[in-house]
Fold this protein.
Amino acid sequence: MCGIIGYAGSREPVGIVLEALSRLEYRGYDSSGVAYFGSDGKVSVARASGKLSRLSEALQGTTGIPDVAIGHIRWATHGAPTEENAHPHRSGPIVLVHNGIIENERALRRELVGQGYVFSSETDTEVLAHLILRAYREEGDLSQAVRKGLASVEGSYALAVLCEEAPGQLVAVRKGAPLILGEASGEYFVASDVPAFLKWTRRVMPLPPEVVATLSPEGLSLCRLSDGQPVPAVFEEVPWDPVQAEKGHYRHFMEKEIFEGPRAIMDTLEGRLGEENSRVFLPELVRLGPNPTEIVFVACGTSYHAALLGRLMIEALSPVPVRVEIASEFRYRPLRFRKGAWVVGISQSGETADTLGALEVARREGYLTVGVTNVGGSSITRETEAVLLTRAGPEIGVASTKAFIAQVTLVWLLALYLGRRESSEVRDSLGLLVRSPARLEGFLGAIVPAEIDRMSRQILEARFVIFIGRGVDYPLAIEGALKMKEITYRPADGYPGGELKHGPIALVEPGVLVVAPLVDSRLRPKETSNIREIEARGGTVLTIGPAGSGPEDLVPSFLLPETSGWDGVFFASAVLQLLAYRAAFLAGNDVDQPRNLAKSVTVE
Ligand code: AGP
């Protein structure tokens, strides 16, 4: 939800800020803006509604003086996505960008209006600009003004603030929304996410919550928001390869990221398998003590679907019972899990407000919490007792693809870790997992694009698409439907195959398309019956499975390699992702930045 960038250094800043914003575009894309110092010593603000390209065009040839600058890309919460509501917002010399939601905005706005402050936008952010100006008039120092101005603010924020009267200073602070600092020689960055400045530096430090950072071309200082006490800055090198955050020869990030699935599996396995791949090590979990009495997954969207697969895997390989909960619903029920249960939050971004909120409640109730995330240093890593990193590298496309593959890898590893090492099932399953990256690579390399396009066109022509599946095919079906909805905007839904006859089958008639992944070999006869029922009612069925998986006289519409276990999940996921990708592309949609969505959902 919204992306922020701040720069302090000795290079022309407008180009840097615009380029950084282009790497944050996945976080929001309904308006954007920048603020920078001009040669007259004044702060210039430029804003535009719509995609970032409109701002870039408007600013072509514009330069700022080497100093500090800020930029913002917006996903609207308060107020329409107009130029007036775009950030930066200004109050006198104070200019700022904000990500988050100010909960007591109405009360603060009333108070400020009563004191003569004039509002020119509907955003909650403008309140912050006026509060900081009021404090600046009293304190005469930007960092102190930010601390004092925020004292009465309730809600979440990540802020980057400039002051026309204090050139060479950029103040940043966060509470409940992410900000990462970056350090290069003679330059400092602050951004909502690492890819924003990965091109210039890999030395990063997640800004701790309620710590105020003052960046200048000369250096960086940190202090506590509450009492101004200094805080040390400790930077670390992130392993992310800057090339991973580029599209390379691919047309879209989503396409590139689908093809990075094998590497995501491989990197997630790295260092977690014993000698000759004989066993799974997850040393991150050792500090939690004995194995859990129960696992409770909490997650949203695609991550929730990975958790559903995790349940099947853990229950198949270990005696540990598993529940899976939608994070946004978790807080509204009493938590009555077994003593010794682990509550495991899965979140690609590590910033999803619903998942973080659920984990917070679980922790408060005395459960041990584990974070499974793709982003080291994200909020989930600070708010859980143990962290398991998936290592998919930066995922830029809003539709999650390789991150899902890495999450499935991780929950599979967790199932093996909790399973009995000496059991042949565990050994065989581990062997299958270890061979998966190479097999998936080979499979992706052999896919004939025309075959995907043929099915994608059928999807676009259908009035409604129903995804069905049983066993492991059920999470795959609902993930396939989610992918289809979010980037093609076509009506699609996913159901357990057995549920069809309890209602959704009423939708089936000519013109309705059913997509059925057929990976779960145990349940094939039952899935076959569902397919027959749909065909009998005039629906068309596309099946995705290995040879022999469909009804006897049919070859699957899309043939997967032979599978003897869960590796089929990787193959089928890749096909479902490619189908959605190509359908969205053929429909002329913006694949990487689908409407109304944002990559990390930091509001509830
Ligand atoms: C996936 O394609 C979606 N963009 C979305 O459902 C996503 O998985 C969800 O918002 C959860 O995000 P997280 O994994 O970062 O917590």
User: Anything to note?
Assistant: The mean pLDDT is 92. The chain has three domains: 3-245, 253-446, 449-586. The pocket of 2-deoxy-2-amino glucitol-6-phosphate is lined by residues 300-303, 347-349, 352, 355, 398-400, 486, 600-601 (CB under 6 Å).
